[in-house]
Amino acid sequence: MFKSKISVSFLLSMFLSIVYVQAQDWVKQMQKPNANFYEIKKSFESHWKNRPYARSQGYKQYKRWEYFWEKRVSPTGKFPLAGIKNVEWDKYLKAHPEIKLAKQLRTKSTTGTWTSLGPNSSPGGYQGVGRINCIEFHPTNANLFYVGTPAGGLWRTTNGGSSWTNLTDDLPIIGVSSIVIHPTNSNILYIATGDADGSDTPSVGVMKSTDGGITWSKTGLDWTMQQGRQISVLLMHPTNANTLIAATSEGIYKTTNGGTTWARKATGTYRDLEVKPGTATTWYATGTQNNGNHQVFLSNNTGESWSQVTNLSGKNRIAIAVSANNPNLVAAVTSNASNNGFGGFYTSTNSGSSFSLKYNSRNLLGWSSTGSDSGGQGWYDLTIAVSPTNANVMHVGGVNNWRSTNGGSSWSINNHWSGAPVTVHADKHFLMYHPLQSNTLFECNDGGVYKTTNGGSSWTDLTNGMAHTQFYKIGVSQSDAGYVVAGAQDNGTKLRRGSSWTNIGGGDGMECIIDPLDRNIQYYSIYYGRITRIMNGSTSTISNNVPGRPRGAWVTPYVLDPSNRQTIIIGYQDVFRSNNRGNSWTNISNGQTGTDNLNAIAVAPSSSNTIYAASYTKIYRTTNASSWTDITAGLPSGPRITYIAVSSSDPNTLWVTLSGYTSGQKVFKSINGGSSWTNISGTLPNLPINCVLHDSNTSNESLYIGTDVGIFYRNNTLGDWVSFSNGLPNVVVRELEIQHSSGKLRAGTYGRGLWESDLYSGGGGSGSAPTANFSASATSVLVGQSVTFTDVSSGSPTSRSWSFTGGSPATSTAQNPTVTYNTPGTYAVSLTVSNAQGSDTKTVPSYIVVTQPTCTYCAATGTNTSYEYLKTVQLGSFTNTSNDDNGYGDYTGQAIQVTAGQSYSVTLTPGFTGSSYTEYYRVWIDYNKDCDFNDPGELVFSGSGSSSVSGNITIANVTASTRMRVSIKYQSASGNCGSFTYGEVEDYTINITNTPVAPQAATRPVTELENTAIDVTLFPNPTQDFVGITTQLKSHAKVEMTVRNSQGQPVMSRKVYSTKGALQEQLDVKNLPAGIYLMQISINGKMVTKRFVIGK
Fold first, then answer.
1. Can you name the residues that pair with 1063 across neighbouring β-strands?
2. Which run of H or of E encompasses 569?
3. pLDDT value at position 1010?
4. Are 395 and 441 in contact (CB under 8 A)?
């Protein structure tokens, strides 16, 4: 028997199924066949008027949907045809056959030379790359499977997830919500296009491939002319591969001829679909037939007719699962319509004829790891899987993953979005057991795809090599070509340094900027214009300083003044300016820029007081940063304004881009500050235009635009726009920026991450010889480690020649090679870069330092600390007090400072859980650093007693940073290795110098204190540069954060005041030395301490 199941949602499903029957009229309006955008928006705003933001009720997901569609609907609110993007792109390709030829020839610089910059991996846990909607497996090859993304297309792995290949980059629609594979001819694939869970891309129905995904064609379930319909599940008949059944927003459809034609078998809105194992006639579905409560439906004739078998109330979504281990079982998890939280777990033991409530205690769909909260996101992420070999083992996915081993009678947290027992990215969209590896469970979530082979004790991130991040905006550094900051949906704000990525902010990342002269000054934001600045190792929410703390657009625009990098201009409804990097702000428009939120803003590079600001329908201008003029007249009234660019030399010359599907109205230019406008759209395809960029280093008005399908270029010597997308997927391009020193164009895409290309030939940087420059991922490494070198040369080099003394390889012509060093020493690096105008060489002697790796000490531990443990260790002025470390405490992050040849007092104090006993103590110091304590003189102290023991240690006449080991053992002294029954061992770092050591300051105990009432997450951990702090505040709070070093001494602190809800802060720790640190967090006087590690 063959089974292919993908459970997803439809284009508007996140809202269609939040059935607040008496309150949320906007949900009902979305279900109408001819839904109107502005009627839905009005109803939504009416519903939320005078209501506080509620995380669990679809607010943020609606705003994402609104941001995408508001620029693309007609002036009357009518949605475009779902297939219009395909139609318009095909028209353009037919009119411009040179585009396909250019892709074949790979012509450099006149059509683009695009390469992906990622991100294509993450450290896992809280962080992620991007959302995965669904997964499907090859019927016979366990290492070959496919995943679908909301805006990054279909991906395939042939090696179990170690690497991935995209199969849909040439399709104009690259969202995938469901996948089906033919059981005996794996070249036949079906995909449901679009993003059903989040509406990030529209759908055109089911597409089919007969060559393994190389080419695709439409099927009879083609919704080009029916905007708003979506597929939630595709399921293949167990024994007849030509029969497929689809659960959709318009009913249940069935094909018996491989998708050529489809017939509707039931009306209503359906969310999930299953077939009984071992039979082809019994099928189950969930959904609603009357826009009311969701129910379970049963068919006993292979989907020809359906009957309702439950009578549940107050449910807005149901997910179901079956198991070959118990074919009569149907497991169902439900979501409550009242708050999208857990609505109960139900089971049927008679093949769906009836259901009974099995569990309704803890909230399995909320955010808490204990299930003690309320609410959830059942409308957005609800999934369930039952083991095919043990029907008592089940997993339910919502925000977190929960597991039952007794058929659903009780549940325990399996992985959590930010904490114990295992941290895996939030928002589970799909769970599925591998059909060929029944002990392996796969999870698709907002961060990627993960698997577990041990029931969830550990999870492995399989997203490596998949570049599918949905970026809203990007910012590049002009002082370091390797630095880019980018704001991503679901996955925060990410910083790229060289070739590595790290998160610097959480939530949905929006607009972001890097100071042009200082890469370490960065700005990033989340929705509604909440802007954070990173500077001098400190993070500040500078939008809190704006008078009145206004609320801006979903993606609020802000820019740096090109003439004064300390000046920031931000557009809410009014325009505000700061002359001191956000410490204070002045309203410079005072009601003159209309009543709508602004969505685009630009400052003339040649005139700081000339500023342009636009809402979707109006554009304004000031020349004195005080009085404003409406300059909209002359622009089309229908399409929405999306972006503004101003000439680098003339403040009166500007360009604006327009969204929507009005043919021939895409880009307009003014040479008189907006007094009049000229249409320069040329023969651009009838697609939404999202951004425009002027290359300030050219004199021929070089322009780049980002569209819903790629990038175009023109200058004043060309008669029309030309496609500049060679090598770039057909993806939505949200923002473009130029990194001038390297001559590179960067593109932030909504679904395929960050991309880079050479500039258009003649577009700057190609008229002179390049200047060589490079950076390295590390300049001090251990033997056997690798270094990635990044070419950051300016002047658009076309070839490179590297030389690496002591490295392997010793030479390279790659742009960013990776070199391994196997011998200790200090080595030079040289780079020669060339282009048609000449060459340049840069050599750095003694650039790479290679040292031997440190050694490993033998393990030593007590196996039972129920009676005694080391309470306090004192050596000279150093003191460490700790609790029971379960037999071994690693305190090597604490450095004891001593002087060679000096004598120090030592006191060891036991901790007893009950009666006191005679204990035996030993202290060793590895003076010669040979990774053992067996050499003469390395046992430096012995003692015994039933309380504290004291003595003196005379430090040997050596200088070293080495290991000190301390042990306590009942009845007899321990050795320095191995395990023993009663007692404990602790390790420390001891620094022996020739410099007299002053008495050390009093230290706090370096212990991690858990306050169970405060749930705080630190990420990433370990880190190099930044540490993020996230928690949920139950009320307005004063939050004090203190970082302490291994001695307990404070090294950094910050105090913030925050309102109720999610707190997200970030500390810059890159200037602190490597080691173990404690983050002490006080929230309204309640304290929690977390340990984190800084590695360099």
1. 1031
2. strand 564-571
3. 40
4. yes
Structure tokens at 113: 């030379």
Q: Which is it for strands 315-323 and 307-308: parallel, antiparallel or unpaired?
A: unpaired
Domain 774-850 has CATH 3.40.50.150: no
Say how far apart CA 939 and CA 926 lie, in whole Å.
9
Q: What angle do CA 966, 967, 971 make, to 5 degrees?
A: 155
- What is the tens place of the pLDDT at every residue in 465-509? 999 999 999 999 998 999 999 999 989 999 999 989 999 998 899
Give the pTM.
0.68
Other Cβ atoms closer than 10 A to 434: 18
**778-798 core/surface letters (b: 16 or more CB in 10 A; e: else):** eeebeeeeebebbbbbbbbbe
Q: Could you please report the per-residue DSSP string of 753-821?
A: -EEEEEPPTTSSS-SS--B--EEES-SEEETT-EEEEEE--BS--SEEEEEETTEESSEE-SSS-EEEE
Q: Which two tokens stand for residue 386?
A: 């039952």
Structurally, at CATH architecture level, domain 1016-1094 sits in Sandwich (2.60)
Is the CB of residue 1066 less than 8 Å from the CB of residue 539?
A: yes
**Which residues make beta-bridge pairs with 841?**
832
Which CATH number is associated with domain 5-9+129-461? 2.130.10.10
CA dihedral 965, 968, 971, 973 (to 10 degrees): 10
Tell me how far apart the alpha carbons of residues 195 and 197 are, in angstroms, rounded to a whole number.
Answer: 6
Residue closest to 425 by CA, chosen among 373, 490, 377? 490
- Superfamily in which the 860-993 domain is placed by CATH: Coagulation Factor XIII, subunit A, domain 1 (2.70.50.30)
Q: What 3-state DSSP class applies to 231?
A: strand
Contacts of residue 1012, defined as CB under 8 A and 6 or more positions apart, other chains included, come to none
Cβ–Cβ < 8 Å for 831, 774:
yes
Beta strands 860-864 and 978-993, pairing class: parallel
pLDDT in tens, 372-409: 999 998 888 999 999 999 999 999 999 999 999 999 99
For residues 1023 and 872, give the distance between their C-alpha atoms in angstroms, rounded to a whole number.
29
Query: How many C-beta atoms surround the C-beta of residue 357 within 10 A?
Result: 12
- Of the candidates 257, 395, 283, 263, the residue with the CA atom closest to the CA atom of residue 331: 395
Is the pLDDT at 596 greater than 70, yes or no?
yes
Residue 17 in contact with residue 230, Cβ under 8 Å? Answer: no
What is the Rg, in whole angstroms, of the alpha carbon atoms belonging to the chain? Answer: 31
CB atoms closer than 10 angstroms to residue 952: 10
